[in-house]
Each structure stands twice: as structure tokens, then as C-alpha cells.
Amino acid sequence: METDTNPAKDFPHLHHVKAIGQHDDLLAAVRAAIAPHAPDLPDTAFSCRPSSQGNYQAVTVSIEVRSHEHLLDIYTSVRAIDGVILCL
User: Fold this and answer.
1) Could you give phi then psi for residue 52, rounded to 5 degrees?
2) Contact between 33 and 79 (Cβ < 8 Å)
3) Of 43, 47, 63, 73, which residue is least crowded by CB atoms under 10 Å?
4) CA–CA separation, 24 and 29 (whole Å)
5) Structural contact between residues 25 and 50, judged by C-beta atoms closer than 8 angstroms
6) How does 48-70 read in b/e, with b if 16+ C-beta sit within 10 Å?
7) Contact by Cβ (8 Å): 33, 81
8) Could you list the pLDDT tens digit for every one of the 88 residues in the chain?
9) pTM for the full model?
């Protein structure tokens, strides 16, 4: 899909996907959701931190996306994780 706001020439590029939510192990859940789309991501591609009061976790994944469809597939998989309340 090629539009003025999302030209095909912008791919591939490094993209940061952030998932915020309440989950016993959000980092592991995000890794599992991302694995079908990027199976060889190193541990350094992931970062995780708790919220200031510890109620939520935020996981950020730095991933090279190949196309707009690839990015949508990644977001769809991450949003499907039980407990994810926001995906950026």
C-alpha cells in the first residue's frame, strides 16, 4: 500500500513498538508475539520497565519492518496479548 503519508520507499526501516499493560510477564508475551514476524531478534532489541507505581509494564521492541503490512501484522499480534492496554 503506497500513500503520501506512508510511501513504500520508507521501508525497510527501524521501528520502535511499545506495548503497555498489566501482564505477569509482558516481556515474554511480547517476545512470543513478535517471534513469527522477526524470529532472530536479539535480546538487545527488547527493553522493559515498570511504571512509577509498579502497576503496569512497558516493553519496547526495536525492529526492522519490511513493509506497511509487516508493521500492521506486528501491531495486530502485540495488541492481541491479554492485558495490553496500549500499543504505540
Assistant:
1) -60, -35
2) no
3) 43
4) 9
5) no
6) eeeeeeeebbbbbbebebeebeb
7) yes
8) 455 565 567 899 999 999 999 999 999 999 999 999 999 999 999 999 999 999 999 999 999 999 999 999 999 999 999 999 999 9
9) 0.86
